[in-house]
Amino acid sequence: MRIHALTTGTVKLKQAFLRPREGARRQLDLFLPGPWSAPVPIHCWAIEHDGRMLLVDTGESAGARDIPFARFEVSSAQELPTALSAAGLSIDDVSEVVLTHHHGDHVDGLPHVRAPARMGAAEFPFIDTPLSRITRRVLRQPLPPGFAPKPLTFDDGPFGAFPRSRSLSDDGRVVAVETPGHTPGHLSVICIDDSGKHVMLAGDATDTLEQLHARRADAVAPDPKVHVATLGLILEHCATNPTVYLPSHDPESVTRLAGSVTVG
If you average pLDDT over residues 194-202, what whole number do you get? Predict the structure, then answer.
C-alpha cells in the first residue's frame, strides 16, 4: 500500500475559525474583522492498493472564491491533475473517489475525474437544507459542475472504536468510518498500512492534531456537541490502534505521513 499527499494550493483561515469562542460568538466572529493564519495546505489523498487507486477528496480549483473566513491561493498549475503528476500518478488511473464532505476545497477538483464518486449518505440531506442552499449562494460557493456522487452507506459493522463502517477494499484494509461534526455526513478513511498501523485520512474532522487533543469543536459545525463526541471517538480509536492522524489542512500532516508518526 502507498498513500500519497496531494497538495492543491493553500488557504489562509481566520483565527476565529481555527479557535472559535463558545456561545453566540462562535459563528458571528467568522464575519467580523480579526487576525488570519499563515497559509495552510489544501490536501487530498491518493491510495494505491491492490491494483487500484482510490482518491480521498479532490482538492480545490483555481476558480475558488474567497469567503469571509477563508482566503484561497490556488493556481491552475496546483489543481488535481498536476498534483497527481507530481506524485508520479495519472488522473486516468483513478478507480474511485470518496469525498469526506461536500465543501468546495474537498470537491472542486471532481470535474477533472472520470471515475465514480461516493460521499456519506447523511451529507445529502444536509446539502439540500434551505440554510445550506442559501449559504452557498450568499458566499458564492456553488457545487462543482456535474457534482453527482453516489451515497455511501455504513453497513459493515464496527471498526475499532467506530460503531459503523464501510470497507472500501476487498481485503478490508481501506475502510470508511463516520466522523460527523464539521458537517453531519462527514466521513474519514482509515488505511491499515503494510506495518499494521492505521493511517486516518481525516478530512476536516479537525484542522490540526492539536484541535483533536483539545477536543475543540470548530466554528462551522452545526452541532458542537456532536463534533466533540466524534473527537472523543477518534481519540478512543487512536488509544487502542496506533494511528497516523492526517487532517487535510494540518501543515504537519505530510511530515507525520512520511515518518509514520502516530497520535501520542
Answer: 97
d(CA 77, CA 136): 26
Four-residue CA torsion sign, 116, 117, 121, 123: negative
Cell representation of residue 150: 453516489
Q: How far apart are CA 102 and CA 183, in angstroms?
A: 8
Alpha carbon distance 47, 127 (integer Å): 27
Residue 123: pLDDT over 90 = yes
Q: What is the pLDDT of residue 89?
A: 98
Which pTM value belongs to this model? 0.96
CA angle 168, 99, 10 (to 5 degrees): 130
Do the strands 117-120 and 96-99 form a parallel or antiparallel pair, or are they unpaired?
Answer: parallel
Q: Is 83 helix (H, G, I), strand (E, B) or coil?
A: helix
Is 48 within 8 Å of 245 (Cβ atoms)? no
Domain coordinates of the chain in residue numbers?
2-259
Q: 146 — alpha (psi -120 to 50), left (phi > 0) or beta?
A: left
**Residues 180-192: tens digit of each pLDDT:** 999 999 999 999 9
Query: Which of 248, 264, 258, 256 minimizes the C-alpha distance to 106?
Result: 248
Q: Does residue 139 carry a pLDDT above 90? A: no
Percent of the chain with pLDDT over 70: 100
First-to-final CA distance of the chain: 24
Q: Tell me the residue length of the chain.
A: 264
DSSP β-bridge partners for residue 44: 6
| Grid coordinates of 61 | 480549483
Could you please report the per-residue DSSP string of 126-150? HHTSHHHHHHHHHTT-PPPTT--PE
**2-259 fold:** Metallo-beta-lactamase; Chain A (3.60.15)
